[in-house]
Design brief:
Chain lengths: 399, 596
């Protein structure tokens, strides 16, 4: 049926019957065999005629290849701001969504809450472990207890019949004790003992007394092991802990605390250690490589320019300048090469990593290997573009 | 007009990540999926240049920490990853963390991570939408080998992952809105389309698509079942051929089965971004490749000869200067020579030329009796592999499903007489009709259904075929051509939310028809056609490199189309996909022959 005038139709439409043929060839064929009176009524004649027609159509097309090459472009819309942004990004940048703000908010709330708890405990700790003369020590138990009770309110132990951490009942064999930091009741098994030295370290990590603690973990430049958490305390019985330092004949003062206080203090300890980690040797060496690289970046273009000008006979520069720069460049190469070689050796030997910790070893070696590859690549790129230092004769000849 | 490039889109995100982390020794922490995503668009040597020296997985348990290193975490926002990240932050292995998720992440998850960050290591937490695998500039995949479940239903997790992948594709190409058209006959396509539309609307506050906006993206979701023949055919363009005969996974080709292979060539990487010969020959057919590789070899031999004549210092210098390129060239040459050699060996021993000609004739011509004879011949031929016979039988079954003299059972019986077909293949033959037969599909795959199609086929036959191995044109190409000309029927391929459409002068409409059914007028608007600015295609159930070739050809002629699917199939993976949809319960009986 014939369409109404309002419709716009596009494509290869037969002018007679308005049927849509998708392509030019089909239109031709359709038109020939439907609308034109053919002399040959046999199928074969029709076929050969059709074949001829198609061939001719194809020949036409063969001479205008460009028109074919963009046939689909007409079906796509062009962005309006296309021309103005031609010089800008070649590819559109994808969307990004940031959650930094919410994250920081959440983290801050948690941290504030945690640091409140910790600070409260630390204040009490300070008073409890003070070494002033007026404060009674464990040698004077009664006075000591009165002192401790003045700082922290001890819970009334008649109200507590079960130990809150292990839920075992108190009795003749299991006596009630008090945590010195929050006053709760605990049994002896669940008690943790915090050495005074550790307490002082927690309060003030930067003083020299903390040198005592450093002995067991840091030794010059080593890797930190936060997954083998060194405990701030030892459990019941004051021997066999990592941090039990019996200094000479002096026996350490210990503070009895409960598990929850211990966890809070442990966290504080871990955070301190995390911040104070020393740089691994690999990284220190790597920084040397980076230094050498940036020096190269600065000098190299100048060197190339000087050599260029010397070889073209200009007298702006002297050969000595070129020689000096060349020496510096080669020394940079040397640094990079030797440092990266040293790093890759480190990767093979894996110092400071446990013998059994193979996954860490693999990781460490991979790191060192990759740094070495990076250095090699860097050297290759630079050495290819470094021009040979011209000799006196070359310079003379050029002038 | 700049063309769409999914590889560039992904690279943009990765570059940004690395830049933001600043000048320091960096380590890239990924999960299994993002590791593939990154490795497809970036070569290790290139990343190394940017000071990224470690490549790790988030799910590998804690090791000794290396503080003062920066971690760039590029993860999918799955529950497992969030848990692993929380664990990691409680015992950090790195000094600072820059976290990037490939898709939307819930507020609670951000909260858990924030609360776990006791050491305040996290500097940045952002969403970078690179949640798909970019293979060629116009081709992407989601690396889901099997999408279907029994009875062709969606698995919740896969549906979620697919929707996420599509959303991220749109966002990475800077498209916030799109018209989504889906295949009505496929339930899975419909559910996916609705899910996609909801996600876009919900997350980005965009109401019904702003129809007046000049850049209008069209997303087309179709089902593999509509065209089950394309994965069954043997291919002759380089990329497609390697995938069919050897297999490409994440741009890696496993050559260990090649006789006489050297150790270093057992697994090679074929990436068009880094390999010039490959880039030029991705879509060349076998004959052209042979010529080109010969040319490449000659070029290489020339260079080699000139290399060996080092007589003066200048020679040495130029040698050193060109050595890296030479080395690279020799690597490329040996790789391609080996692969092409293997391909031609396989073509010879499996008689693929004869076979492929039969396949193409089966699908594109209509000589029933001739083709049955030919198939019977090939069944007897020992050189032809079992799987190729299975291909032929399935193609025959699909083609002549409703033919009066359907010989599928006879052919199958003959095959079983002289070959031992594995159980899997027998089940596959039974399953293929259920998968892609007439009962499900709407499309006219063989151009037999209406006069237009018959004429078209006729014309093609008359023109004579210039390449008998490339006669077949995949359905997706026809669908896209229809879509571009505004002829993709709305009742077969509706858009999501097509009820509320407004007219504007950017359209041209085809005829409006009013149908009367039982006295009530039903207004049937046929394809309110909007000129798209680009088309993004997703095929549920996977795509093939042949289809990628056709889309590439269209793009060369000015189209802007991006093609993708759940997976890139070859025959082997396609068998698994079809079988997952369920084998019909016909025990010893072969399938009933449908008679008109």
């Amino acid at each position: 049926m014939l369409p109404t005038i309002n419709d716009v139709r596009e494509g290869f439409i037969c002018p007679q019957c308005h049927l849509d043929m998708s392509t030019m060839e089909m239109l031709h064929v359709h038109f020939q065999d439907v609308h034109m009176k053919q002399s040959s009524s046999t199928v074969k004649g029709l076929l050969s005629f059709a074949k001829q027609k198609i061939k001719s159509v194809q020949d036409n097309f063969a001479t205008i290849p460009n028109e074919q090459s963009n046939i689909y472009a007409q079906y796509f819309s062009v962005e309006p701001h296309d021309s103005s942004t031609k010089q800008q990004q070649h590819s559109p940048n994808g969307y990004i969504c940031s959650h930094n703000e919410e994250f920081k908010k959440f983290r801050k709330t948690k941290h504030d809450q945690m640091s409140l708890e910790t600070t409260c405990l630390l204040l009490r700790l300070e008073r409890l472990t003070s070494i002033e003369e007026s404060v009674p020590k464990s040698s004077n138990p009664k006075e000591r207890r009165k002192y401790e009770q003045r700082i922290v309110d001890w819970l009334d132990d008649s109200k507590v019949s079960l130990c809150p951490s292990c839920a075992k009942s108190f009795g003749l064999s299991r006596r009630k004790h008090h945590c010195r930091l929050d006053g709760f009741v605990i049994c002896n098994e669940c008690s943790q003992f915090l050495p005074f030295s550790m307490a002082r370290y927690l309060i003030e990590p930067n003083t020299s007394s903390s040198g005592l603690l450093n002995k067991s973990t840091t030794n010059g430049v080593t890797l930190q092991r936060t997954n083998s958490l060194t405990s701030v305390t030892s459990t019941a019985g004051v021997d066999g802990s990592n941090l039990n330092l019996k200094e000479g004949g002096n026996h350490e003062e210990y503070l009895r605390i409960c598990r929850s206080c211990q966890q809070i203090l442990q966290r504080r300890y871990d955070q301190i250690r995390f911040k104070k980690t020393d740089k691994d040797e690999v990284l220190i060496r790597y920084e040397k490589i980076i230094e050498a690289q940036s020096e190269l970046e600065k000098i190299h273009p100048t060197y190339s320019a000087i050599v260029e000008s010397l070889l073209t006979g200009e007298t702006k520069h002297q050969l000595i300048d070129a020689q000096r720069l060349y020496r510096r460049i080669t020394s940079c190469y040397e640094t990079i090469d030797s440092t990266s070689k040293y790093i890759s050796k480190l990767g093979e030997s894996c110092p400071n990593i446990d013998e059994n910790d193979t996954s860490s070893q693999i990781r460490y070696s991979a790191l060192c290997r990759n740094i070495r590859m990076y250095a090699i690549h860097l050297l290759q790129n630079y050495s290819i573009s470094t021009r040979r230092l011209p000799s006196d004769d070359d310079v003379q000849r050029a002038r | 007009m700049t063309n769409l490039n999914v590889i560039e889109a992904t690279r943009f995100y990765i570059n940004r990540m690395i830049e933001d982390a600043g000048q320091s020794v960096k380590g890239l922490v990924m999960d299994k999926e993002t590791a593939s995503i990154v490795s497809m668009v970036y070569a290790q040597s290139e990343i190394l240049q940017k000071e990224v020296f470690l490549f790790e997985r988030i799910d590998v348990a804690g090791q000794k920490s290396l503080k003062h290193l920066t971690a760039i975490c590029f993860l999918r926002p799955t529950e497992d990853n969030i848990q692993a990240l929380v664990r990691e932050l409680q015992e950090p292995k790195y000094g600072s963390y820059f976290i990037y998720f490939t898709n939307f992440v819930e507020l609670n998850d951000i909260k858990s991570i924030a609360e776990a960050d006791e050491y305040e290591c996290v500097r940045v937490i952002q969403e970078f939408y690179a949640d798909y695998v970019a293979i060629n500039p116009h081709l992407y995949s989601l690396n889901i080998p099997i999408t279907y479940e029994n009875n062709f239903l969606w698995n919740d997790q896969l549906l979620r992952r697919t929707a996420q992948g599509l959303v991220s594709l749109l966002l990475s190409l800077r498209k916030k809105s799109a018209t989504i058209r889906y295949q009505q006959s496929s339930n899975m396509a419909k559910i996916l389309a609705e899910r996609l539309s909801n996600t876009l609307r919900r997350q980005l506050d965009f109401a019904s698509s702003n129809v007046n906006a000049p850049d209008h993206t069209v997303v087309l979701i179709v089902d593999r079942r509509e065209d089950a023949i394309t994965p069954l055919l043997n291919q002759w363009t380089y990329q497609a051929m390697v995938h069919e005969l050897i297999g490409i996974k994440n741009n890696r080709v496993n050559l260990s089965q090649v006789p006489g292979i050297t150790k270093e060539l057992e697994e090679v990487v074929m990436n068009a971004e880094y390999d010039e010969f490959y880039a030029d020959n991705l879509y060349s057919n076998f004959g052209e490749i042979a010529t080109n590789i010969k040319r490449l070899m000659e070029h290489f031999q020339e260079k080699h000869k000139s290399q060996s004549k080092i007589e003066s210092i200048t020679d040495m210098k130029s040698f050193v200067e060109s050595y890296p390129q030479f080395k690279k060239l020799s690597g490329t040459v040996s790789k391609h020579v080996t692969i092409v050699g293997e391909l031609s060996r396989l073509v010879g021993i499996y008689n693929l030329l004869d076979l492929s000609e039969t396949e193409q004739n089966l699908v594109c011509q209509s000589n029933h009796s001739e083709i049955v004879q030919k198939i019977k011949q090939l069944i007897q031929n020992d050189k032809i592999r079992d799987e190729d016979i299975v291909r032929l039988i399935c193609l025959y079954a699909l083609r002549y499903e409703h033919h009066g003299n359907n010989e599928t059972n006879a052919l199958l019986r003959e095959t079983l007489k002289c070959r031992q077909l594995s159980e899997k293949y027998i089940q596959f033959i039974q399953a293929i009709l259920n998968y892609g037969g007439r009962k499900f599909r709407q499309a006219d795959l063989f151009n037999t259904q209406n006069s237009m199609a018959i004429t078209r086929q006729f014309i093609r036959g008359l023109k004579g075929v210039d390449n008998v191995y490339a006669q077949h044109i995949p359905l997706i190409r026809d669908l896209l051509e229809q879509l571009l000309r505004g002829k993709l029927k709305d009742n077969l391929y509706p858009s999501v939310g097509s009820k509320d459409r407004i007219q504007s002068n950017n359209y041209y409409t085809t005829s409006q028809q009013t149908q009367f059914q039982q006295g009530q007028p039903i207004k049937y608007r046929s394809s309110l056609f909007i000129i798209p600015s680009e088309i993004i295609v997703y095929v549920v159930g996977g795509i093939t490199y042949e289809e990628s070739y056709h889309i590439h050809m269209m793009n060369k002629q000015g189209a802007r189309i991006v093609l993708g699917g759940s997976y890139i199939h070859n025959f082997a993976s396609f068998v698994d996909e079809v079988l997952a949809g369920g084998v019909p319960s016909t025990s010893n009986e072969f399938f009933a022959v449908k008679r008109r």
